[in-house]
Amino acid sequence: MGIIPCGSGNGLARSLKIPVSRTKAVEVLNENRMKRIDTMSVNGNFCASIAGIGFDALIAKEFQEKPKNTRGLHSYVQLIATKYPTYKANEYKIEIDGQSSLHKAMFICLANANQFGYNAIVSPNSRIDDGLIDVCIVKNIPLITAPHTAMLLLTNNLDHSHRVKILQGKSIKIYNNINEYANIDGEAKKVGKTVDITIKHKSLMVIC
Fold first, then answer.
1. Which residue has the higher pLDDT, 60 or 27?
2. What does CATH list as the number for 11-207?
């Protein structure tokens, strides 16, 4: 697979160090350097980079409903600022490789790559070819501390927050009490009350 970044955040391209300039991305394609990366299956949906449920999925859903000519970092941040104050954390049961635990979270990110896009790095230690899914559980963050958490996200230090817990596994199941949407590579898709995620080790060849 070759990538010419044409999205808003371009998280997968950035994770693979592919230039967001289309001209330079084509130059990378012409160099024809290959790398095998992992992919994920999210309730049967293909996912190469990031999946998430909770607040993350709500923002993805609202963002994709905006006209394309109004999308961008500014409108993304504005949407977060509008929705965050009234969003309530949800209860989730997370099963990782057969071991289950309960968590109350604002959102849960399933990271194959390390970032959402715009260099907002949610999973600093995630590696796209290690055969593991990083499960980033973000607890309720009071509005007063949200700017500090945002700074950690943008400086590759989110794992230093005591409100963030990162686990790893190959097979993940997440159970929730609402009909949940998931953010799958930046697109919101309805997945229901059980989200089943598995890793497919080095299943995709990319030019990067």
1. 27
2. 2.60.200.40
